[in-house]
Design goal:
The structure is a homotetramer of 306-residue chains.
Chain A (H helix, E strand, L loop, with lengths): L1 H13 L5 E2 L4 H4 L7 E5 L5 E5 L5 E2 L4 H13 L20 H5 L10 H12 L4 H16 L5 E2 L1 H10 L1 H12 L7 H12 L1 E3 L1 H7 L1 H4 L3 E2 L4 E2 L3 H14 L5 H7 L4 E3 L4 E6 L3 E6 L2 E2 L6 H14 L7
Antiparallel strand pairs in A: 1-12, 2-3, 2-11, 4-6, 5-6, 7-8, 9-10, 10-11
Helix pairs in contact in A: 1-14, 3-5, 5-8, 5-9, 6-9, 6-10, 7-9, 8-9
Subunit structure (chains A, B, C, D): Homotetramer.
Family (chains A, B, C, D): Belongs to the glutaminase family.
Catalytic activity (chains A, B, C, D): L-glutamine + H2O = L-glutamate + NH4(+)
């Protein structure tokens, strides 16, 4: 495995077209696009890494996987009255679909859906308390108490987050937001600003590759059925309107973030985190996707393979 | 396996809400909604069936899997200049997406996409020749020379097929159709009117469950990579704007038809065909989906399971 | 003229289907739907009225005519880089068009357009100053210093104005709003909350019926060309997606508000204000439209008549 | 008047940016873009012309005014169950609106609407008979029996008319077309191919400028109310998604065709035809619009003027 990762890393270093770093969040725009990292965790806990696997990056939308997991724990299937579970065919921040479907977001991974999920887990609490809960859960999953929120990124997002504010107010106009819009947005922007490195992220996603149970410690996070359902949503909607492309090329459930990270899970095999800040046109890590494509080619881990 | 199928069959017999038989094609509207059948083929060729597994039904959109396979064989990746590979988030016969994307269909399984695929494989031939080729391929896959087109259904579709005619002319107005629209539509409607039973259909799909090679005879139909890609398209787009729901509940690549059939593949395990004519609101077999959900529960065949 | 108005008023009193009072702004929801008023001002200053013509009502979107006039005075044709001048074919608060046209509102009379117009006239000022300017202009037009803003209505709008907040943030995300979104919204909601009666409103609109000059005092408000252009925008877009219907039935440039008022101008003839709180499905005063239809039938004032 | 027209003509000759000749109908693509003509008919029959006012051109969508008039005569207000009367905010050949509103076209002047209008007047007749009726009506209006259909243009349109075929089949799929689609399209394409010169066209539109009665002969074509309503539809929808712009700049009810003609009416004053083959981006005659703008500046004929 280490050889495979090093080969991929070497290959990625050669690539000159590395995509474009997200520029709409000023704090993310200044990240060096030449960075690359990948970590693979096997069920026995062995962790293989290559590149800048200890460098922290902003996980951004990957956080949506963790809040979705929390929300399903709190609301169960009732969550699906707040948010749908179909791919949207639209960009991550589209509002058109909301107007056509009376303010109900198509799935939990587009921005509107994730904002609705955050609202659904706040249960009358203040943003601080909700954030503490989310952060605690991520630390528990990764078994790492050092994971933190990057306040600078969070503030940068709040200042420039008009599009998300628009989505939240739009849903609120359909009575789909239970807490003050500012509170929900504050929580949303902060939980997108969690900083992790590839090692931590790969560990945090391990339960999804093993039917809901962390195979290292044997701790059950969610039921097998729920784990599979979260994975199916990742596959169907985890890369916005590039989800079909990702399924086609990589063939693993995955969730990307505009910070350049991708969390992917190979059921029964491994949890994988990859990071490279340059994005393709749709907003998914360009080299990250290419690296995963190579990894699957080497390992045969596609969920569509026999 | 026989016990599982019989249990599912018994369970399905009890269901009173069986959906609605497709009524926009007169010839399909008169099918008895109380029918149900399911067949499972294992890699050693063992075939387990329950219900009306010898009754022929109109495979309708399931035929799109076979023409996609032919088109990829003929055009390779060049096919993707004719048709995209993203879920559409729209109904199967929507034209809105076409206008927004200059006549290029979002994927090969919505009607517009399948019409474009049919056009791409005609290579200047007459409808008769193209149909002969498609039929030959399906017979080869199922290893059954008796498979035929139901002329009555085909004629019924042509007479009432204004929506598909609209889609085809729309694409033609963007110069995306190379043959006379009437020829393309004739071929399209006829290949949707292929009649098969569950046993035949399950056999025809077997290659997709085993990386492109029929495990009974060892004949390679497509490369492992192509097989996985076809499967990924089935998962992402095989049930129109109900694809997310199907992935969530069943967790297998599948393709439905308005005749009430579904072809599903469990990679490395089996090929499955199910048929029940009553459809849900989106146009997918209601009991068919429920039966597959039960089958996966019993067997654990979800592609998202470890 | 007095006979015509009294006849219309008598006719309107008989109507049982009076539409529905706007209920999304709590303060407006409690207005008595049985009220009706109409005022007609002729060029010599003669003012004919019927019904509750001294009762104040919330002019709501009719205020958009006055801010558009101010904005054209300040920015001239440069205003059209901020907002278009085509009918939208969409409801007054639709956001779909904004996404399709990169945040530029289709015309100054849909909500998004009016918010952009308000932003364009703030010129770095605080909401208070901008509101004072707008109010001063309306008082000048109506020659009535008693005209005021209803603070209760304004506060009620702010509290429930998520949809407009969504529109404003959406435009801000495209850098189309120059002032803090809260300031723009505060100004917008307050200027919608100006209270006027039919007499005042008819006087305020008089300049538009006489090529930009108030014929009573001979004061020129805008040039003839600008007056005609504002009138054309009222005809094309003044009743949202009911503008075609209004032009078809009434045949006069008009602007409606969800408070139940309509300002209409008969070029060269008169300025007309009508008010009845019940709205049709699209959000225009039901009896107001019917009364104008009758008035035009009696007077022949249609701009399409010889 | 002659001086005004000659001045406009001289001004237009100077213009170098003359727009682009419609190229999607091959037969229209070869028209010389340097031509220009304008005719004005006054109520006493005096006809003033400038430029190539005897040159025949394809009236294209201007024919929609005449079929609308026939349809209102046959169906009265029942026509509005077939077609709406709101501006669409979309291009002339958009299909998006049709899908959102169950196949009912927004107004009679977008292509889908005009196709529905043609279908509504066929009353079970063959295309030939319907065309004879339309042609007879246009000849009667213009008092000129020499007016003919250009068969070459008609055939050229049929061969390349996939977009209109798509619209017709789409409406047929909602059971909104009563005759065979091919018959309706044949009639539609042929009536768009009527050839007229500016003099003939200005005469044909005269009734609309005088409340439905031709003032030269005193023949009443339609009632005053109907005449005003047709005019209002021309103003609101006569230039597709450039209707707001035309109302803003010209201020007269008008209908354009992609052949480069525009028919405009100044109520109580005159009927005007203008022709210049080069089109703006939206598909309306570029110089034609500019010439009308100048004419209104000279005459003050805007319907929004006092």
């Amino acid at each position: 495995m280490q050889d495979i990762l090093d080969e991929i890393s070497a290959e990625m270093r050669k690539r000159t077209d590395r995509g474009t770093v997200a520029n709409y969040i000023p704090q993310l725009a200044c990240v060096d696009p030449n960075q690359f990292a990948m970590s693979v965790v096997l069920p026995d806990g062995q962790t293989f890494s290559t590149g800048d696997a200890d460098t922290l990056f902003s996980i951004q939308s990957i956080s949506k996987v963790f809040t979705l997991t929390i929300a399903l724990g709190k609301l169960g299937d009732h969550l699906w009255s707040h948010v749908g579970r179909e791919p949207s065919g639209d960009p991550f921040n589209s509002i058109v679909q909301l107007e056509h479907e009376q303010g109900k977001p198509r799935n939990p991974f587009i921005n509107a859906g994730a904002i609705a999920v955050v609202d659904s887990i706040m249960s009358g609490h203040q943003p601080k308390e909700s954030l503490a809960e989310i952060l605690e859960f991520v630390r528990f999953l990764a078994n790492d108490k050092s994971i933190c929120i990057d306040e600078k990124v969070a503030r940068s997002e709040i200042e420039t987050g008009h599009r998300n504010a628009s989505l939240a107010h739009f849903m609120a106009s359909f009575d789909r937001i239970s807490h003050p819009v500012e509170h929900v947005l504050g929580t949303y922007f902060h939980h997108c600003s969690i900083s992790m490195n590839c090692k931590q992220l790969a560990h945090a996603g391990l339960f999804l590759a093993f039917d809901g149970t962390n195979p290292i410690y044997g701790t059950r996070v969610v039921s097998p059925e729920r784990s599979r359902r979260i994975s199916s949503l990742m596959l169907m909607c985890g890369h916005y309107d590039g989800s079909g492309e990702f399924a086609f090329r990589v063939g693993l459930p995955g969730k990307s973030g505009v910070g350049g990270g991708i969390l992917a899970v190979a059921p029964g095999e491994a949890s994988i985190a990859v990071w490279s800040p340059g994005l393709d046109k749709i907003g998914n890590s360009k080299l990250g996707t290419e690296a995963l494509e190579l990894l699957v080619k080497h390992t045969g881990w596609s969920i569509f393979a026999k």
